[in-house]
Write a structure and sequence with these properties.
It is globular, with a radius of gyration of 27 Å. Helix 5 packs across helix 16. About 40% of the residues lie in helices and about 15% in strands. It is built from 21 helices and 17 strands. It starts with a strand and ends in an 8-residue tail after the last strand. It has two domains: about 400 residues, Spore Coat Polysaccharide Biosynthesis Protein SpsA, Chain A, CATH 3.90.550; about 180 residues, Rossmann fold.
Length: about 600
């Protein structure tokens, strides 16, 4: 496994030296591709002085916007995996060797996502004259985890859906993820890998959409630096215009009507909009995604009115620039709310006012609550962090720290809970759900039957991570040997469970035995899950398994279906299909099938 570390740079040679040094001290197979964006400094001379053939530098013939420079670096790379670093970032000891182990252990995943440390360098924040080092890994799926694991694709897709809604539930920074060359090449028909004004907002979310396998390593493996020469510096210090210029100015967006949507305000939101609009154009139809333009306008207007009427940091001219682009209704609504808040704030004690401001920002539900205590020590550069690992290991975020970020995911999931297809058949009926989960709740009147009663299984841990609690298990029993009489309930329902049975025919016939009216199964579709590169399981193979009485305790996806192949199985077995929907109308990575339980098969 060869890793390409991409290092775009411009006039920051002092920082670039540190980033390169943290890579040179790594074991394993790696290369560095420095893309010098028309610097006035002698970047090539420095690289040449290192006398290391693994480090290449390429100078652009003119100043490029950030996205173009990132793509220039990528085009020069040759590694099996690619990691984009800023020139004020760095690797922590053992990054390359650890990545190689994960690639081997998890059979070459498309993405390896890690946690990080955040280095706020001296001179960035006035209140931190000596800088600060903090844990930086607020993704909700990191909560309570200690060992690498495969992220469920449905969870990854929910993260992207939240991003399309301008809600941050995981970090988009490019430093968090190493991406396989295979995935990069597969995405080539959609254009350059890095697109939009914020290339990491685009590429990270697209990777989460399209990756067949995402491995999450909870440990911090990189240092993300915020230096006085970075975009983060301008953002933290409310110097938006200089930040835009630093990135290379505005890049044109292909959507001609985007100009009607844009509002002045927070440049982060403008770059975010550029990214999600590009995702909409490139991949929206495939995944049913669309940028939430209305919410973008709400956030921009809220930002400007808050800055004007609450903090007094912008003048009437900037407010007028916003209001000129608002509709009359928007203008009346936002101005009335801002003036009311200002009037109440003027007579409210400071402590209550600050609490109200905090509650207001939380009500926007854009960013998670994430303010971990800094790590002990003094660190002026990424090399300092590399050479002096913190004595106090960065801890996983606590339940309280990640509550808000989880709540964002939960609220987003709740908006998509109802499946009109499933409820059309099962509303008002009483039944059994096989392997119910709290984060994939269909809200059925059903007993939950699970083969495990323990609360510490990987599935229950995932439920608690995503929904803060795990579904209660009512009956502990194998799903294909239910302790119920024939025709005991109206229905048996399962979602993303049937593929775990070594003999799915046995399970379906058992569900038919117990149900009076319907058997409803939501099943993962081969082409929309991490099974995409597997062959379909033939009906003949499934029939042979059933006739042989095949059994196994191994937990895996034993069977791979498309909707067509599942319907063929039902026909061969004698199950009468009432209705089906492909894709399903809940998560969308599977299909749903309704079987008439009143018609019992004669035998298989």
């Amino acid at each position: 496994m060869k890793l390409s570390i991409l290092l775009p740079t411009r006039n920051r040679l002092d920082l670039l030296r540190g980033a390169i040094e943290t890579v040179r001290r790594q074991d394993g197979d790696w290369e560095i591709v420095v893309s010098d964006n028309d610097s006035e400094e002698d970047v090539a001379g420095y690289v040449s002085s290192l006398c290391d053939k693994r480090i290449a530098v390429h100078r652009t013939d003119r100043f490029l916007p950030v996205t173009a420079n990132w793509n220039a670096a990528l085009q020069r790379s040759t590694g099996d995996y690619v990691l984009m670093l800023g020139d004020d970032d760095g690797l922590l000891p053992g990054y390359v060797a650890n990545l190689a182990r994960l690639v081997e252990r998890f059979a070459a995943p498309d993405v390896v996502y890690t946690s990080a440390l955040l280095l706020t360098c001296p001179g960035v924040v006035a209140e931190l004259p000596h800088g600060q080092l903090s844990p930086y890994g607020y993704a909700s799926f990191l909560a309570g985890t200690h060992e690498p694991f495969v992220l469920d694709r449905a969870v990854a897709h929910e993260m992207v859906r939240a991003a399309m809604d301008f809600r941050l539930t995981y970090g988009f920074n490019s430093q968090f993820l190493a991406i396989s060359r295979r995935l990069i090449d597969e995405l080539a028909p959609a254009g350059p890998f890095y697109q939009s004004r914020f290339p990491d907002y685009y590429s990270t979310n697209v990777a989460f959409l399209k990756a067949r396998s995402i491995v999450v390593d909870p440990g911090p493996r990189v240092v993300i630096g915020v230096s006085p020469k970075s975009y983060g510096f301008f953002h933290v210090n409310k110097r938006e215009g200089e930040g835009v210029a630093f990135l290379g100015g505005d890049e044109e967006d292909a959507d001609a009507d985007l100009e009607r949507v844009l509002l002045p305000g927070n440049n982060i939101n403008v770059g975010w909009l550029s990214a999600v609009e590009t995702i909409t154009r490139r991949h929206g139809a495939e995944f049913g995604l669309r940028a939430n333009r209305r919410r973008f306008r709400l956030l921009q207007a809220a930002h400007v009115y808050e800055e004007r009427f609450i903090h007094g940091r912008i003048d009437d001219e900037e407010l007028a620039a916003l209001e000129a682009r608002l509709s009359a209704r928007e203008r009346r609504l936002f101005r009335a709310a801002a003036r009311a808040a200002s009037a109440v704030g003027s007579v409210t004690p400071t402590r209550l006012r600050r609490a109200a401001e905090y509650a207001y920002r939380r009500s926007l539900r854009q960013f998670p609550t994430w303010d971990p205590p800094p790590l002990a020590g003094s660190y002026a550069s990424v090399v300092d962090v590399f050479e002096n690992q913190p004595d106090e290991p960065p801890r996983a975020p606590s339940r309280r720290e990640l509550y808000m970020s989880r709540a964002i995911i939960i609220s987003h999931l709740l908006r998509r809970r109802d499946s009109s297809f499933v409820t059309r058949y099962l509303t008002g009926l009483k039944g059994i759900e096989i392997g119910a989960s709290s984060h994939n709740n269909y809200f059925l009147d059903a007993i939950n039957v699970d083969r495990w009663g323990a609360r510490d299984t990987p599935y229950k841990q995932e439920e608690r991570m995503l929904a803060l609690h795990a579904a209660k298990v009512d009956v502990v029993a194998p799903g294909d040997a239910l302790p119920f009489d024939a025709d005991a309930v109206d229905f048996v329902f399962s979602s993303h469970v049937l593929e775990h049975f070594p003999d799915p025919i046995r399970a379906l016939l058992e569900w038919q035995r117990v149900a009076r009216r319907y058997v409803v199964a939501v099943v993962p579709h081969r082409d929309r899950t991490f099974d995409a590169d597997r062959d379909l399981t033939t009906v003949d193979e499934l029939l042979e398994r059933h006739r042989a009485g095949f059994r196994s305790d191994e937990d895996r996806h034993w069977t791979v279906w498309t909707c067509e192949s599942f319907l063929e199985l039902c026909d061969r077995v004698g199950l009468v299909v009432v209705d089906h929907l492909d894709p399903d109308d809940k998560v969308g990575n599977g299909f749903a099938v309704v079987i008439d339980a009143a018609v019992k098969p004669a035998g298989v």
